Amino acid sequence: MQLKTDLYIDGKWVKGDGTIPVIDPSNGEVIAEVATAGESQCDAAVAAADRAFVTWSKTAPRVRAEILRKAFELMIAESDHLAKLTSMENGKVFSDAKGEIAYAAEFFRWFSEEAVRTPGDFRMAPSGDKRILVTHQPIGVSLLITPWNFPAAMATRKIGPALAAGCTMILKPASETPLTALAIIDILERAGVPAGVVNLILPSKTGPMISKMLHDPRVRNLSFTGSTEVGRVLLKESADCVLRTSMELGGNAPFVVLADANIDDAVAGAMIAKMRNGGAACTAANRFIVAKSVAEEFTTKFAKAMGALKVAPGLEEGAQLGASVSIKERNKIAELVDASVAAGGKLELGGKTPEGAGAFYPATVISVTKENPILNHEVFGPVAPVVTFENDEEAIALANATEFGLISYVYSSDLKRAIKTAEAIESGMVAINRGVISDPAAPFGGFKQSGLGREGGFHGIHEFLETKYIGVEI
Ligand code: NAP
């Protein structure tokens, strides 16, 4: 496997001021040493993006579209290699990694189609004294910061619309998973992205170096995906220069099973909503809110399905639940489960940290009461707390009892009842009778402290565009 491990600045692969190891979390072994950027390299990346913006922002949309289309085709052609890389550095199983690469590539295809369709507007002012012309222009140099849980898709969900809009960019992947992002940059270079348009850095000191870049007047836009905790810090940092920001932050998704739900369908959906990516997804169902009358049947069947999963290194044949990204992340999961059990949670399955060098945690189901502390945390692992309710109003109140509002899931055999529940839940996305709804053609984003703005769909490109009004005397 040919790995890219250098920084990518101004169309060149360059060494940094040091290196950091990338670890395979399934066995603790070092996969590669990746270059880190010092201050001068961070500055060089901003300078390159700033210079490239002059021409890239004026490139014909069709040219940008065709580069994105080529990048999509390369990603699909090389998806086995990319999925292996993602699985190795992230710990997720190969089938999840393959699914992620397909989803990630789709953002390049979708935004290749969007690049040539940016809408405008030309009309007479109501007073009749002028014409109102509304157009869109690329914002400028954009800083893209991504997390470790979807190292490919979170990068392409930003790079795709940024390229389509005519912005230039600096990508900063998570320190745990830079290899997938580097491989995607290699694909973009081969697809014909000109020098300076896309740059990749991995700062040796993330906080202070990103802060400096957010105070650089050449940087105009921050697109961040990660935890709400870091998002709050970056919003404060961005306030000094009044940067445009889009924030895709944490989640604590409720999975509501109403009394009339088909339980077998709900269990099948729960397995996807909970276990895709080993539970390390912002969209992962995190609180199973189940009608009391069906709770026993649901919990028994769900625990049985969870218990049947094969836990193994991501690249092992038949693996269904891989390692967490690191021992540190795995231990966070274990601490939340231990605290939940100490507060009265009843373990239905799992809950015991295995021995060994790999960052594994077993599929775990816990029956809890609504006061249990685990319900207030994004677990980010294969852990499913189940809490019961008496009526639909109580289910909605439980679903909304969180600072997060990214996604929710509702199961019911009555579509009217399901839609009424979906409308009452405070989240940016609701899945009805489905375990997954992420789609590059649909707007992805959250209410409350799950974020600001939307990625994907018709909205995504607007995160990288300014709206300009030109008043014309006629
Ligand atoms: P994280 O700790 O917030 O890190 C995300 C990114 O921010 C990483 O690249 C990290 O770099 C960087 N970062 C950390 N501190 C920073 C600082 N002070 N200044 C600038 N950058 C900083 O999140 P994570 O643990 O990687 O990812 C998990 C979180 O992401 C979960 O909360 C999940 O819900 C959320 N997420 C949300 C979405 C969504 O679309 N809403 C999608 C996926 C994940 P280093 O690696 O160098 O620290």
Structure report:
This protein is 38% helix and 23% strand. The protein contains 13 helices and 22 strands. The model has no long low-confidence stretch (mean pLDDT 98). It is globular, with a radius of gyration of 23 Å. The strands form 6 sheets. A 7-stranded mixed beta sheet has the order 14-15-16-13-12-18-19, sandwiched between helices. It has a 6-stranded mixed beta sheet with strand order 9-8-7-10-11-21, sandwiched between helices. A hairpin with a 6-residue loop joins strand 5 and strand 6. NADP nicotinamide-adenine-dinucleotide phosphate (NAP) is lined by residues 145-150, 154, 172, 174-175, 206-207, 210, 225-227, 230, 233-234, 248-251, 282, 378, 406, 446, 451.
In short:
The chain has 474 residues and is α/β, with parallel strands linked by helices. It has helices spanning 39-56, 61-77, 79-90, 94-114, 153-165, 178-191, 206-214, 228-239, 263-275, 292-307, 327-342, 392-400, 415-424, and strands at 7-9, 12-14, 18-24, 29-36, 121-124, 131-138, 141-145, 169-172, 198-200, 219-225, 244-248, 253-257, 285-291, 346-349, 364-367, 383-389, 404-405, 407-411, 429-432, 447-448, 451-452, 465-472.
Please describe the structure with a list of short key phrases separated by commas or semicolons:
globular, single chain, Aldehyde Dehydrogenase, Chain A, domain 1, binds NADP nicotinamide-adenine-dinucleotide phosphate, 23% strand, 13 helices, alpha/beta, seven-stranded mixed sheet, 474 residues, 2 domains, Aldehyde Dehydrogenase, Chain A, domain 2, six-stranded mixed sheet
